[in-house]
Amino acid sequence: MRNTLLLLLLLAPEAANALDACKTEVKIFQFPPALMPHIDGKTDDWKIVGEQYTYRNDKLHGSECGHPRGIDPKDLDVSVKVGWVKGLDRLYFLYEAYDDYWDFDLYSDARPYQNDIFEISLDADLSGGPFIANPQIKDPVEGHFRFGGTHAQNYHIFTPPVNRQWCMVWGSNPWIAEFPWAHSAYDYRFKHGEKGKLVLEFWITPFDYAPSEGTSRAVVSKLVENQLIGLSWAVLDFDRGQKKAPGGNCTLSSNPQSVKDGSALCGARLMPLEERFLPGIEAKFSFQLVDPARRLVYFKDESLGEVTKWTWHFGDGETSHERDPVHIYAKPSIKTNVLLEVEGPKGKSRYSRHWEVNVP
User: Fold this and answer.
1) Domain coverage including residue 106
2) Which residues on adjacent β-strands are paired with residue 64?
3) Which ranges constitute the DSSP H helices of the chain?
4) Same domain, 18 and 165
5) Which of 101, 207, 215, 307 gives 20 to 30 Å between its CA and that of 317?
6) Do 157 and 71 have their domain in common?
7) Both ends of the chain: CA-CA distance in Å?
8) Residue 27 shares a structural domain with residue 73
9) In this structure, what is the dihedral angle of CA atoms 73, 118, 63, 29, given to the nearest 10 degrees?
10) 287-326 pLDDT, tens per residue?
């Protein structure tokens, strides 16, 4: 274990925890669990996401992005929304795009491998620095398997896919684009070379560490409310085999290195639930047995809404009015029922946990 940690430190990029001076801080909408998106390629689940969470052509940068006044929406018209659900370490995306020429003739003999692309770069723990190639590792094969995509990730998403591969991971860990770590759905009616609208709905799992050998030592990034993560995206528009048309290669970050360097990403904020989704008052708590020898349990209030009074019933006849009490049980106890009642300007609420608080 010690050798593994030392190796990770040696391979870590020098520039850490630095984000590009991005003109846009992305707001990541928090879905209530009951309204989380169903990945079916339809946009109905996203109607609750406001315009302040929508990122269009005017947020994209790049020398090939087209006219000085921005991308002509008649050529390419893009809309991106990002969401999350508290308690699930996933990022949800809705990508909608109109293109006057959808290019996805992947296996044509007349020209090299290509496809219109929506590309996601993600560094959830702000580790920073390059994440595709490590300049400290001279052998490109060794660098790929030991470093490529491990501390931050790049998803090369085909729009639309050919032969059912929805995403090519730019790194050594293709498994991160497979279920249960990712899921996607499309809706479109056009053929190669035609114009039309595409809807892409998907979620991905961010990783602090995603090694080439698979999931056994992988570390999923924990997403926390109000947390800032590193995120950017790029749109690659191939028109008739060329990436030079207006809208050809645009990035959300003003730094084109964002596709392979975590320090060049934009900041993205995991927003709290909007007030319209919050209950007037709702009791909730968690607990932890912090000292088994003393039968000491810590209770943490997680109630929603404005609370002015807490009443705890610990299941042994004892009570407390503290918000986050510490309670010592006098004797071993199993099948204990603990109840929290909260009061506030908008009423009362009760929450109980049955047979969960057990002390030896």
Assistant:
1) 11-270
2) none
3) 2-11, 140-147
4) yes
5) 307
6) yes
7) 32
8) yes
9) 80
10) 999 999 999 999 999 999 999 999 999 999 999 999 999 9
- Whether the bond into 73 is cis, omega within 30 of 0: no
Distance CA 13, CA 257 (A): 15
Same domain, 325 and 355: yes
Token digits of residue 337: 């029922």
Please give the structure tokens belonging to residue 205: 């799992």
Please state the pTM of the whole predicted model: 0.84
Considering all CA atoms of the chain, what is the largest pairwise distance in Å, rounded to the nearest integer?
80
Strand partners, 184: 202
Among 212, 241, 270, the domain-final residue is: 270
pLDDT tens per residue across span 120-144: 999 999 999 999 988 889 899 998 9
